[in-house]
Amino acid sequence: NAGVTQTPKFRVLKTGQSMTLLCAQDMNHEYMYWYRQDPGMGLRLIHYSVGEGTTAKGEVPDGYNVSRLKKQNFLLGLESAAPSQTSVYFCASSYSSGAGQPQHFGDGTRLSIL
Amino acid sequence: DAKTTQPNSMESNEEEPVHLPCNHSTISGTDYIHWYRQLPSQGPEYVIHGLTSNVNNRMASLAIAEDRKSSTLILHRATLRDAAVYYCILRASGGYQKVTFGIGTKLQVIP
After folding, report:
1. For strand B105-110 and strand B9-13, is the pairing parallel, antiparallel, or unpaired?
2. Which of A79, A88, A74, A87 is nearest to A26 (CA)?
3. Cα A102 from Cα A86, distance rounded (Å)
4. Which region, left, alpha or beta, applies to residue A95 given φ > 0 means left and ψ of -120 to 50 means alpha?
5. What single DSSP character describes residue A84?
6. pLDDT digits (tens, 9 = 90+) for B17-57
7. Which of B44, B94, B100 lies at the smallest CB-CB distance from A105?
8. Contact B43 A105 (CB under 8 A)
9. Burial, B94: exposed, middle or buried (Cβ in 10 Å; 0-12, 13-18, 19+)?
10. How far is the C-alpha of A88 from the C-alpha of B42, rounded, in Å?
């Protein structure tokens, strides 16, 4: 059972470089999310999508862009990486936005910006 | 969003039951109570959720107070694999509501 798959698992970037994190889900879920997790701060929502072709801002969207061209994929882009974006990034998906619906998470991408 | 309060850490002996508490005194009538856990170097994993009644599944049980201002996640027999950070989260009904993860409770299981 693949569930939510994130690539890459680890990455080191230099300040100013760009990169794209890929999230793929095989559960036919409508909703997808990108979070970042930093020590002592819990998970914070970056961007989310309520369906193919749609995206919306979360709590901490600055410095990131996203795209959802296919229902199963949700891409997170860093156009010009900064050390403050060093974090662990998690992607999640859910069937709907209903309060009783759980979110399913990937195992994360550990990103270091030097 | 209504907030939850959990102890920062707890310890349990292996093969004994574990009761993880969560206070949510400002919960509204339509808020669901969700529990997730996060094992080291992994993403959060859904454990269980409920609205008013106690719930059981293969992973755990959820006991919800009659006034819904607190809940308890029960692991019936802790194993070393249950060592993780456990998050208690409230999710409101109506429209899109983001999931807000706090700091959670770090559970240590002692062999």
Report:
1. parallel
2. A74
3. 27
4. alpha
5. G
6. 999 999 999 998 888 999 999 998 899 999 999 999 999 99
7. B44
8. yes
9. exposed
10. 10
The SS3 assignment for B81 reads helix
- The answer to whether B71 and B33 have CB atoms below 8 angstroms apart is yes
Longest Cα pair distance anywhere in chain B, in angstroms? 45
Residues in chain A: 114
Q: In angstroms, how far is the first alpha carbon of chain A from the final one?
A: 35
- The β-bridge relationship of strands B84-91 and B105-110 is antiparallel
- Any residues with CB less than 8 A from the CB of B88 and at least 6 apart, and which? B4, B6, B20, B22, B24, B33, B34, B35, B71, B73, B102, B104, B105
Residues from chain A that touch B103, judged by Cβ atoms under 8 A, are 40, 42
Length of chain B (residues): 111
What is the per-residue pLDDT across B65-109, written as a single tens digit (0 to 9) for each?
999 999 999 999 999 999 999 999 998 876 566 677 888 999 999
Contacts of A102 in chain B (CB under 8 A): 34, 46, 49
